Amino acid sequence: MLTILIPLRDEVENLPHIVRSFEENIKDINYEVILINDFSKDKTFEESEKICATNKNYKILDNKKKGLGGALNLGISVARGDFICIVMADLSDDVNDIKRYYHTIKEKKMDAVFGSRFLKSSKVEGYAINKLILNRIFNLFVKILFLSPYNDFTNAFKIYKSEVLKSFLPLISESFNIFLEMPLKIISRKYSYEIIPINWYNRKKGKNKFNIKELRSKYLFTLIHCFTEKILLRKRIK
Asked: For 75-84, 88-97, 148-157, 205-214, which range has the lowest pLDDT when averaged over its residues?
């Protein structure tokens, strides 16, 4: 079974579209959806409860530690699936790529599958140019630092073998930097992974929660932590 984790903060406008999109596109996969309410100020939690009341494969959790880190630690800990796919509630991720993720990780017996929005056959729409430039500079730096062929570390949308992701708990990052921590731990600890092209479309509804100015120090903290871990693990092997 596949577990789809969706952290939510003030995403009431997108909830009906999430359900409809999954019903129409991934009905051939046995999946559960875990919605994690992250201190929403709108009716996200109440509307999520309504969805869960009429959809048996949906569950809503109320985060107790504010931030994406707390939400995902909670969601990962209760996931029942063999694989865990993290999907953002803004519907920027292509639902059809969930199927590609699932079949790739299952058939190739990988520990993770990393999608990249920046491969030749990827499709990206509506990415603000200033964020795009910062994204490519930072990801290039991480790629060189970790000697990895991957080029989209900071993207949230990835799939992991459940037992591997659970072994990382508790993840230390508090915000969007958690999406950097998870793939770097896969790489540092020598787990197997595949890289595939994915599509990305900027959100149509709701407000973007990502603020690069507020997150710079947090990304730096996660990068230093994961690089230190990489060095320590290498020394242990020697």
From this structure: 205-214
Chain position carrying tokens 């809503």: 60
DSSP the chain: -EEEEEEESS-TTTHHHHHHHHHHHSTTS-EEEEEEE-S-SSSHHHHHHHHHHH-TTEEEEE-SS-SHHHHHHHHHHH--SSEEEE--TTS-B-HHHHHHHHHHHHHTT-SEEEEESSSTT-EEES--HHHHHHHHHHHHHHHHHTT-S---TT---EEEEHHHHHHTPSP---STTHHHHHHHHHHHTT--EEEEE-EEE--SSS-----HHHHHHHHHHHHHHHHHHHHHHHHHH-
Mean pLDDT over each residue of the chain, to the nearest integer: 93
Cβ-count burial of 135 within 10 angstroms (0-12 exposed, 13-18 middle, 19+ buried)?
buried
The structure's pTM equals 0.93
- Architecture in CATH for domain 2-237: Alpha-Beta Complex (3.90)
Q: What is the largest CA-CA distance in the chain?
A: 54
- CA–CA dist 140, 150 (Å, integer): 9
Nearest to 105 by CA among 182, 164, 21, 59: 164
